Amino acid sequence: MKKSIANFLIGAALLASASVFAGTPVTKDGVTTINLDQYGGYFAAKETLADLKPGKYRFVVANKTKKVVGFQIQEFTSHQPLDMFPLEPGQTKTSEVNITENGFRFRCPINPTPWYDVENVKAK
Prior knowledge:
By secondary structure, the protein is mainly beta. It has one domain (about 25-120): Sandwich (Immunoglobulin-like), CATH 2.60.40.420. It contains one helix and nine strands; from the N terminus they run αβββββββββ. The strands form two sheets. Strands 1, 2, 3, 4 and 7 form a five-stranded mixed beta sheet that branches. A four-stranded antiparallel beta sheet has the order 6-5-8-9, with no helix packed on it. The protein starts with a helix and ends in a 6-residue tail after the last strand.
């Protein structure tokens, strides 16, 4: 009986931990998609933001709050604006931008979140 309970707990812990790992971004027709869910004060990425390559990216941003939020994305080094828009509660919007080896950063300018800095963009 104790062994069954221990096995159940280990299995449950493994399933729970597997759900927190982000997936690999999918590239289709030369565009890589990153899904971002925005909650009260933070973003959650469904795909990993590690080891990205320069190129065209589609950011699919979903507002998971009950208030208006926003999405702002900039080139990392120069802070040149790449895109910015508001999202109504429950709304999802898409942004397509070109990302260089300089990387990028994003945040919510309406419900201020810290900048999410992604500097690890490298050519092959």
